[in-house]
From TrEMBL:
Signal peptide: none annotated. This is ABC transporter permease. Pfam families: ABC2_membrane_4. The chain crosses the membrane at residues 16-35, 47-67, 98-126, 138-163, 220-242. Keywords: Membrane, Transmembrane, Transmembrane helix. It comes from Clostridium brassicae. It comes from the Bacteria.
């Protein structure tokens, strides 16, 4: 499995698409800081950390292109059989896909955040309002978000084995995370208020709960546990499906 993960990382590290994607997002962060400066907005480093905390949920969608890089080639060329025939078990195949996507995503996060906050320090300075407490709060929420992003990746990998079409996979993934909360709310209103319990354990709901500055430790712990359950459940479901799936 380790060799397959290394091969996946090597393959994607040498793709211009991967580094281009990171470069574009990093450049957008710098541009946003420059626009904030030119717009004479009252912006400081503390405000930047608080703003990024609010949009951590967007990572569920930003990880989609990376997930597609890891899974698209086998779906398109139907080369999974070759991988299995080389001795990679189906369970290890699933774990390798998830782990490779997470590693590539974490590298992207490190580069993008370093560029964004680094340019913010250069442009705005540290400021008197910034403190280690602000940084610690952000880092804790970032770690919880990584667990939730991993949960989203586990679900995405599960979906990717169902669809050979990249377009179909993309629309299903985006629809799942962008519409599920509203659908559950509608069912809660029209059918039964018991559906609110489902809403409370959605990944998107967890991001809504951890983003406010007033989020408590209990909220962060609960979000982490929800993410961990999703990871375990969908990893197992993917393994069970791939084990019985016809590999071409």
């Amino acid at each position: 499995m380790l060799n397959y993960i290394k091969a996946e990382l090597y393959r994607n590290f040498n793709r211009a698409y991967y580094w281009g994607y990171i470069g574009v997002l990093s450049a957008l962060g710098i541009v946003m800081n420059i626009i904030s400066l030119n717009g004479k907005m009252n912006v400081n480093l503390k405000g930047m950390f608080e703003f990024f905390t609010i949009i951590l949920g967007a990572g569920m969608f930003l990880v989609l292109p990376i997930m597609d890089m890891v899974t698209a080639e086998e779906r398109k060329n139907e080369t999974l059989k070759n991988i299995v025939s080389f001795g990679v078990s189906r369970n290890k195949l699933v774990l390798s896909k998830i782990i490779s996507t997470i590693i590539l995503s974490l590298i992207a996060v490190i580069v993008i955040l370093s560029t964004f906050f680094g340019s913010a320090v250069i442009i705005f300075g540290i400021g008197q309002d910034f403190s280690l407490n602000v940084l610690n709060t952000f880092m804790i929420k970032l770690l919880v978000s990584i667990i939730l992003w991993t949960a989203a990746v586990s679900m995405g990998i599960f979906i990717s084995f169902f669809f050979k079409s990249n377009v179909t996979f993309t629309f299903v993934y985006i629809g799942l995370f962008s519409m599920s909360k509203n659908i559950i709310k509608l069912l809660t209103t029209l059918v039964s208020d018991k559906f609110k319990y489902i809403s409370n354990i959605l990944i998107t709901t967890q991001f809504d709960k951890i983003s406010p500055q007033s989020a408590t430790n209990d909220t962060l712990i609960f979000a982490s546990l929800v993410g961990a359950v999703y990871i375990i459940v969908f990893t197992i479901l993917t393994m069970l499906y791939v084990r019985k799936m016809e590999v071409k």
